[in-house]
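Researcher: Let's do a round of design. I'm pasting the structure tokens now; please hold your answer until I've finished.
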């Protein structure tokens, strides 16, 4: 059993990972300022409402608990917003991470799992994308994650901080039995938007139908949030066992188009998805699919949710519970 600090643990992926860590017998404290997350996502007695920039608050938290490792999710995540307000993203995602790293150094905590993103690759030359692909973010959000990755590389070299960086592709699904799921505000992710269209009758806008893909819509790699949580558990195990700093893609390795996701939602819910087509969004690559073979081979990680239907089904179970539509 390890003592773990989870930053951003009141958010979507952080709360699933917190529950998974507790289920494995780890002792967990959550740091979250609730700017985007929810207290109801965090099990009783685990939440510390602290902002990453609050050095005194961080110092108190590290002094009160002898953490073995930190899992760092806390960040802003909206690509479009990052284009409008780049400084907000660099301040929170890079500045917040630096503040956390200083607190870790002072408390002599030397293991970190970091949430990075496929956005560090920008528009890839080919897919599936290996970890060795060129890193060329096309928006401030992706750049803010890459800057933190770079910091971690230097921290490994200069101060012995060991980190596992997980570059997630499109997280989806939920564990509705724990009462947690995707509740971003504003919501920018496809599956909850599809459900919203079903619920409200307001058409979902599909951006672009002329991409060089089988049906003309963008293809993405959807990975279940619990499979991502499992990747964090494996990453922590490797760090606790003295493993080195490493970087992994975390995706299911299959691509699904927007229309395929919509059709899966129609099969799962038995309801049509009202939709309309709009122009392409700038900076949206046609296809983003992970080569996750390194994670599978090194960490014996295998996604449990093998089909798009099973992922959409688990997301629907949460969405329907949340909105009382079941
Ligand atoms: N959701 C995805 O598909 C996806 C894909 C790739 C990477 N990621 C990364 O995964 C991480 C988690 O994403 P998510 O979807 O769970 O987002 P989320 O918004 O649900 O969770 C982020 C949490 O961090 C907290 N937070 C933000 N800034 C903070 C600060 N300065 N101090 C304290 N708490 C702060 C928010 O309140 C929120 O609870 C992020 O780092 C994101 O970049 C997510």
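Researcher: That's everything. Go ahead.
Model: Designed sequence:
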């Amino acid at each position: 059993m390890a003592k773990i600090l989870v930053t951003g643990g009141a958010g979507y992926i952080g709360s699933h990972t917190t529950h998974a860590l507790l289920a494995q017998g780890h002792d967990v404290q959550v740091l979250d300022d609730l700017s985007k997350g929810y207290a109801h996502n965090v099990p009783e007695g685990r939440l510390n409402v602290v902002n990453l920039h609050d050095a005194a608050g961080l110092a108190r938290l590290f002094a009160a608990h002898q953490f073995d490792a930190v899992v760092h999710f806390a960040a802003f995540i909206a690509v479009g917003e990052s284009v409008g307000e780049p400084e907000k993203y660099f301040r929170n995602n890079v500045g917040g991470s630096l503040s956390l790293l200083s607190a870790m150094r002072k408390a002599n905590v030397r293991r970190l799992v970091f949430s990075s993103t496929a956005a560090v690759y920008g528009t890839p030359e080919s897919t599936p994308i290996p970890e060795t692909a060129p890193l060329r973010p096309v928006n401030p959000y992706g750049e803010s994650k890459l800057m933190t990755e770079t910091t971690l590389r230097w921290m490994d070299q200069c101060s012995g901080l060991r980190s596992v960086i997980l570059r997630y592709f499109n997280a989806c699904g939920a564990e509705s039995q724990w009462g947690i799921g995707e509740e971003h505000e504003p919501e920018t992710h496809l599956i909850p938007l599809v459900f919203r269209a079903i619920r409200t009758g307001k058409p979902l806008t599909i951006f672009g139908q002329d991409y060089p893909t089988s049906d003309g819509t963008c293809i993405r790699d959807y990975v279940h949030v619990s499979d991502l949580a499992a990747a964090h558990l494996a990453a922590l195990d490797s760090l606790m066992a003295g493993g080195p700093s490493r970087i992994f893609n975390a995706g299911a390795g299959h691509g699904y188009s927007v229309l395929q996701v919509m059709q899966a939602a129609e099969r799962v819910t038995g309801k049509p998805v009202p939709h309309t087509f709009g122009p392409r969004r700038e900076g949206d690559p046609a296809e983003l699919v992970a080569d996750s073979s390194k994670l599978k081979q090194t960490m014996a990680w295998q996604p449990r949710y093998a089909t798009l239907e099973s992922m959409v089904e688990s997301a629907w179970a949460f969405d329907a519970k949340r909105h009382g539509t079941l």
